[in-house]
Every structure is written in C-alpha cells, then in structure tokens.
Amino acid sequence: MKISVLGATGGTGQAIVKQALANGHYVKALVRRPEGLKVRHEKLEVFIGDARDPDIIETLMEGQDAVICSLGIPAAGTTRAEIDDSIKTDVCMVSTQLLFDAMPRHNVARIVLMSTHGAGSSNDGSDYCNWLRDLVKNRVYDKDDMEAFIAGSDASIKWTVIRNPAIYDGEKGRDYNVYTRITIDRSSKITYLDLADFAVSEVEEAQHVGQFLSITEPLDNKNFMASAEVAPTCR
Ligand SMILES: NC(=O)c1ccc[n+]([C@@H]2O[C@H](COP(=O)([O-])OP(=O)(O)OC[C@H]3O[C@@H](n4cnc5c(N)ncnc54)[C@H](OP(=O)(O)O)[C@@H]3O)[C@@H](O)[C@H]2O)c1
Predict the structure, then answer these.
(1) Ligand 1 pocket, 91 CB below 6 A?
(2) Is residue 223 part of a domain?
(3) Domain with 212 in it: what CATH number?
(4) Range of the domain at 198
(5) Is 188 touching ligand 1 by the criterion CB < 6 Å?
C-alpha cells in the first residue's frame, strides 16, 4: 500500500513509519523538522511542511491509499506548572478537516487518527479524565473538536480513531486490547511499538472502521477491566 504519515517525527509517528516500511509499504512522511526523522529508506519520501497547509495536504494525498495521522503537541511534563497551556492548539482539528476534504478527490478512503482517552465521548467524568483534561486543556480541546468533526463526517471516508493513554518506550508484543468503552486510570499505558503496529494493521485490515477505540494494556483496577467493552471487529 501507499500510506501517508503525519506527525512522523513524533514518538509514535517514527514507529509508524518504521512499521509501515517493514511491512513493505511505500510511505510519504510529513515533517516540520527533517532532522527529527531518523529513518532513511528507498520506499520513504519525506515532505516538509505544516499540517495546516492545504497545499501540503493535497501533495500528501496524491497517489496514496491510506493515511495515518499522529499529530499532537507534546505535553512536556506531568504537572500543570510544567505544561504551557497558552499555546494555541488547533493542528488536529484543522489538519483533519483538510484531510477529509482532500481524500475523496484523490480516492483515498482509509484514515487512522490518534486521539487521547478523555476526549469526546470517552470523557466519562472519571478521575483520570478530570485529571487529564485539567492538565492539558488546549490539547484535549483540539482532540474534542477533531472527534466531533469526524463523528459528523461523510460515510464515504473509512476512519478509525485511536484514543491513547500514556505512551511509553517499551517492547512490541505486550498484552493489550482495544475498547469501545472503558474507564481507565493512570496505570493505563501502551508502548509506541504496539501502538504503531496496531495503527498499521488497521490500515491493512480495516477491522474497526467507524469506531473510536481506547487502547490499553490491562489496568491494575480489575473492576474497570470487568466492565470494559472490547471493540467488535468488522470482519
Ligand atoms: N505521548 C502520550 O503519552 C500521549 C497520550 C495521549 C495521547 N497522545 C496522542 O497520541 C499521538 C501520538 O503521541 P506522541 O507522543 O507520539 O506524539 P508527539 O511525539 O508529540 O508527536 C507529535 C507530532 O506532531 C507533529 N506536529 C505538531 N504540530 C504540527 C504541525 N502544525 N504541522 C506538522 N506536524 C506537526 C510534531 O512535529 P515536530 O516534531 O516538528 O514538533 C510531531 O511529529 C498524538 O496525537 C498525541 O496527542 C499521546
């Protein structure tokens, strides 16, 4: 397949680029800082630009089969004092609007987008969601806007949204699952490598089209695990 990856210098984005190339795909990667993407490969084409630029989105869609969007603004800390919440954060919403506008023109039907658990309908008023939303306000509001736009989008685009918990640098192949409903706590986590592997497999196999998925390794809280709803597969 020919896959465009946005956010390719991020922790998850780099892992997605590597996984897609390892699976034999051609990749167009969007970066702002080319030096931030360490991968070089004959099937990798790197584009420099801002994801809110309609022209670069148009270029990224030309000749492609699918998109994986791993854009975000790093929180850079775990306390409010460490996080600059004054930054205007609209990259997820604006880029998603541009992508959903451009995709039909280029016959690109499949897109997988990274969000965060606590955004949109996953905001269940739990301690985790309240903590997260208070901590990273603007970043999660951008994901809320993105998710609302996607939920109301045209059915011709086959989308899947992955709502991440904390992502960490661990090995691939850990025990994890995807859920349509789950209450999580701060023990929830997923490795960059498993997240990337899942995102690429979703593009390849389209198992969860039209779903907002929370992804996590098993939680410490057994009651939360017992009441969670595992996402059904489409085929
Ligand atoms: N990390 C976590 O624990 C966590 C938790 C919950 C949800 N998430 C979400 O999961 C996804 C992956 O997280 P991550 O930590 O791997 O992401 P990340 O390392 O923060 O990477 C974000 C990527 O977005 C790019 N980007 C930001 N604004 C851009 C713009 N205007 N134009 C083009 N590129 C732009 C960044 O480019 P630069 O390198 O140039 O800045 C970077 O490549 C993100 O959607 C994030 O919001 C992450």
Answers:
(1) yes
(2) yes
(3) 3.40.50.720
(4) 2-230
(5) no
